[in-house]
Amino acid sequence: MPQTQPKHNFDVDLDFGQIWERRVCNIFENNGSLEIKADKIWHKSGNLAFEFKYKGHDSGIAKSQALWWVSVLTSKDDPDNTELILIWKTEKLKELLRRLCKEKKADIMRGGDGGNSEMVLAKIDDLLPAVIQEKPWSNVKTAYDNGFQAGVKHMQDFYNNEKNR
Q: Which of 21, 66, 86, 125 could form a disulfide with 33 if both were Cys (CB 3.0 to 4.6 A apart)?
C-alpha cells in the first residue's frame, strides 16, 4: 500500500510553532507581568524613549518590576492603532539601555510634563537584536531602483540562498 511521504518537517514545524504559541499566550494571560508603554512619535524620530526618573525619583523602567516590557509603536496616521509591538524581558532591556548609554549610542535627556522626566532616548535599530540589524533584505529597494527585473532577481537570489543554508 503506497504511503504519502511526510511533508518537509511539517510535524516538527507545527510542534515548534505550538510551543511558542503557548509561551506567548502565557506572557499575556497569566505567567508574565507586563509594563506597556505606547510611543506616538517614533515614526518621526526613529527613537524610543524610556523614562527612568520623574522629579528626581526612580520611575518607569528603573522602577518597573514587570517581567516583560512592551513598547507599542502607534500608527502615524491613527494613534489609536499600532504599526508594531516590541517586547523585551525587562531586565535584558535595562542591560541593553545601559550598554547603549555607555557606548554613546543612546542619549539621556529631559522631557515629559514640564521637563520633569529623565529618559533614555535610543534608536529603534539599536534596540533590535544584531541578527535583525543585519537586514539581509534591506537592499531590496536599491535592487528595484535598478529596474523591476533586477529587483525580482535579487529576491530570487535571496530566497535561494536561504533555502541552501
A: 66
